[in-house]
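Protein 1 of 2
SEQ + STRUCT:
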Amino acid sequence: MLTFGTDGVRGEFGKELTENYAANLAEVAAQVLQCNLVVIGRDTRESGVLLETAITKALATMGVEVQLMGVAPTPAIAFAARKHGVVAIAITASHNLYQDNGIKIFGAGGCKLSDAEQESIEQAMLARGENAKAADDMVSSSAKSGVARPELLQEYCDWLVGLVRPGALKNLHVALDCANGAFSHVAPEVFSKLGATVTTINATPDGRNINLQCGATHPEPLSEVVKSVGAHFGVAFDGDGDRLIAVDGNAQIVDGDHLLAISALDMKHRGTLRNNKVVVTVMTNIGFHQAMKNAGIEVVTTPVGDRSVLLALDDESLSLGGEQSGHIIYRDLATTGDGLLAAVSLAALIVESKKSLSEIANGAMTSFPQVLINLRVGKRVDGVDQLFKGEIAAAEKTLGASGRVLVRASGTEPMVRVMVEAPQQDIAEKVAATLAEAITARLG
């Protein structure tokens, strides 16, 4: 049975994630969260409609009212949950390819579920076991379908546009890579309404091309477009829109660490960086930590996942956090990573500063060379850092105090991730390759 990872449940549609599983999960979640209304949105993958239908029918059978946003980015779904105080479900596998899908659940108020809530749902699912009904059996002939609520998505768009003064971006040319995902129509609309000149790529979803060699995990095509059209900068979203990677006017990639550093320094200058702290994960580059130390900003480090970042933000009443992968959380404005909110904020900062993104990013921090190797394994592995304790210790001895090693299991896929940072690229590559070879030899 699927269990909650770092960001909801996720798996291959039809095998790990079935319509029956989705229906049962929705029913159990509704019981645990004691809700009578649920908002549902989905990204553009072809299995989304089937999962939406199964979930809607299961909830309707329970007497739970269902409101459908249709294709909508995850941050818009969280926004609806926050604005209207309702539980919401996002049907998405984020940056994965179309074969996978997933389910993210937001509690009333727009925050992802707590550990206790997730555990209660998992225990209830386990208790059902083989007694769980098939999706079709759960649906009575009188079960109502969901009610279409496209205005919920429009509320999100209007809110974003309202954050910046009218026409603020009129002299800005922005290139957008929408990953053939949920921002395909939303992001160009928002930037156009703010007055920007917009060049859009990968905004024609067909159900199977989401994240396919495009978007935040593959920003190289966007770099080429920024260069060819002479855009001031570009932004690549992932399929569900909760993260972004930027490209400056020189076609150089600006990752989440740089974007977070830019925001932290700007917010400190404005006096909005609450408690003078910023939250990051263990993947954050050493260079970020050095930049924040130099700026007098304290860094709080969490496990991977924007859910972990959000928990730390709320625990310490902080206003900014994020991940190298491009999740940026402006806690005073949102309850989850929001790629478009971060993109609009970045555009406004560029205009106000009268500097290029290249100047701003290079001034914010300098990254240490970092090598990341993703190793596919037979099944998800727990305690991988302990399994390879000796190999990791040897790698750390090689690097000394000037480098860093992180070996961890993916929270959503059967994969082990090896990350090495060092002052020189060749050293990082050599150490990472040695670790990867050892892991592959034992885990295959």
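Protein 2 of 2
SEQ + STRUCT:
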Amino acid sequence: MLGITGLGGRFRDIAASEDVSRGKPDPEVFLKAAAKLGVDPASCVVIEDARVGIRAAKAAGMKALAVTTTHPADSLAPEGPDRIAATLEAVDAAFLGGLWEIKP
């Protein structure tokens, strides 16, 4: 897919299904991605549109942004995403950085 979209050279590393032995909701793929990047999982954001993906992100100790492109917000909310967005159009660095802001 990355080749088709022309995005293949834009990523330093990729973790995909062929890199893991357990699928979501197991957090293995997200933990593998963090390890490949050499970053703490707690500093990562997972953008997901499915309940099992949100569950996997939270199990990995990562922030989860749920996007309602395939499931409505009320079906994703029980998994505990840190934020829910209708689309990715409003998601930028400031939006993602806000996931770590301390809320009163």
